[in-house]
Specification:
The chain has 484 residues and is of the alpha/beta class. It is built from 20 helices and nine strands.
Length: 484
């Protein structure tokens, strides 16, 4: 046994030496003139990967867990998708990339188990199932958090997330024999990783960020902002933390201070280049109104000693729903009944004989927007991906003559209750509509009304409720409610 073990160790050492030599050679070549920094993964199995080093019992346990299907089904898809990511890497600058399949797979598992970056990297380094899932040797199962972060930023910048989604969806539809001829559509409200601010908090945080950036730019300019403003909005201030009865009075002070800061540094080229200054100008235009005469502060206001300024807060009803809600994520908008955040439009197959149902489209839209405007882009995206349905089921928010006629123009029937104005009249007998919705707008509206009046409509429309369960599952189990 000892002799056999020594032979085994020598073989392993020789193979590992060869691997290190080849790796160094590839790394050296990367710096040759004209060499690409992108390197696709070598899909050939390793002699000493995690599976090869495990006992039969532990290997069988991994195969029965989620790691087995991931290694056998998901990892090959990620390998095949790697060339799509070549443009993320410079042709000459930098060093060869970490395996794209590993980076993309880590993000999938991170969201699947609702983990932070560091938690996911910890699982990769210490959990045998993660080694097995990626076919790694234990010593290879390590990655820098900065590498993961930079890859995510590049994927977002180049909109490559859809590549992984499309590749995975296409292969699953093919492998499972899923029919997509009938699909359901709904939206759900989500948040990005930001603190929900009230109106006073929005003013205070926007000015705090500006003062922080100004201090880094020029400490002299920072001091010139004024002692009162620095006291109320600097890093140490807690001016936004006010009792309800104090909040309205402090909000008027914050509006005047915002105007003072914008005017104080207007024309200063260095300051105007700061993104934080642009955010203050946007906040001023969205939340305040410039008046003809300066308005003095009340005697007990914190800025009573400062010169009056010609600014007045807008009524909350006058502030647009697409106005800035947080300086940390300027794309966030407001929906009257759902609050601040985003909407995600989800389309899902719903054919009776399918073994499972799959999400076929996921599209982020502003919270301030209407679901009605999202129907056609979803259909066009499904058509482009080759998964266009013959019928799409949606609620009244997606309905209407315009949407029904535009969907018909793409060969898709809209199954939805008619809007309030087009509801079928009770007690009136309506003729059975044609199988296909007409493309003419007026005729399409009439077709919607006649279809809803038929006794079979309730049965045809019933599958729509299933997507509510999908939304709930995504939020309860996968952290979809608030995304980092």
């Amino acid at each position: 046994m000892k002799i056999a073990q020594k032979v085994f160790d020598r073989i392993k050492f020789a193979l590992n030496s060869k691997i290190r030599y080849n790796s160094s050679y590839a790394h050296a070549r990367a710096y040759d003139k004209g060499a690409d920094m992108f390197r696709p993964s070598d899909c050939q199995g390793k002699l000493f990967d995690a599976g090869g080093l495990m006992t039969p019992h532990k290997k069988a346990a991994c195969e029965k867990s989620w790691a087995g299907p991931f290694y056998g089904k998901a990892l090959p898809i990620l390998f095949r998708a790697e060339p799509e990511f070549a443009e993320l890497y410079d042709e000459r600058m930098g060093r060869p990339n970490a395996p794209v399949a590993l980076l993309a797979g880590l993000h999938i598992l991170k969201e699947m188990f609702n983990l932070t970056d560091m938690e996911a990297l910890g699982e990769l380094e210490f959990d045998t199932r993660w080694w097995y899932a990626f076919g790694l040797e234990p010593d290879e199962a390590r990655l820098c958090q900065k590498t993961l972060h930079n890859f995510r930023c590049a994927v977002m910048l180049h909109e490559k997330g859809q590549v992984i989604f499309r590749k995975t969806t296409d292969e699953l539809i093919s492998a499972l024999g899923i029919s997509v001829t009938r699909q359901r559509l709904d939206s759900t409200h989500i948040l990005s990783n930001f603190a929900v601010l009230n109106r006073l908090g929005l003013f205070c945080e926007t000015m705090r960020l500006f003062l922080h950036a100004l201090k880094k730019l020029d400490s002299g300019l920072y001091e010139s902002a004024g002692a009162g403003i620095l006291k109320r909005y600097s890093e140490e201030a807690r001016y936004h933390d006010a009792r309800k009865e104090e909040g309205r009075r402090r909000l008027s002070v914050a509006a005047r201070d915002l105007y003072r800061l914008v005017k104080r540094f207007e024309g200063n080229e260095a300051v105007e280049k700061l993104n934080e200054y642009s955010l203050m100008k946007r906040l001023l235009s969205e939340q305040c109104r410039i008046v003809s005469k300066p308005r003095p502060a009340a005697k007990d206001d914190d800025d009573s000693g400062d010169p009056p300024v010609p600014v007045k807060l807008k009524s909350p009803k006058k502030v647009r729903s697409d106005s800035m809600q947080t300086p940390h994520d300027t794309d966030v908008t407001y929906s009257g009944h759902k609050g601040k955040g985003y909407e995600v439009q989800l389309a899902e197959s719903c054919v009776e004989n399918n073994p499972v149902e799959l999400i076929t489209e996921a599209r982020v839209t502003p919270s301030s927007g209407s679901d009605s405007a999202a129907l056609l882009p979803v259909i066009e995206s499904l058509e482009k991906s080759g998964h266009k349905p013959e019928e799409i089921i949606a609620d009244t928010g997606y309905s209407g003559a315009k949407n029904a006629s535009e969907a018909a123009g793409h060969g898709v029937n809209l199954c939805a209750p008619a809007p309030a104005r087009g509801k079928p009249l009770p007690g009136v007998s309506y003729p059975v509509p044609a199988d296909k919705c007409p493309k003419d707008r007026k005729e399409a509206g009439d077709w919607l009304k006649r279809r809803e009046a038929q006794p079979v409509f309730k049965k045809d429309y019933a599958p729509r409720a299933g997507i509510e369960g999908t939304n709930s599952e995504l939020k309860r189990r996968h952290g979809f409610r608030k995304l980092a």
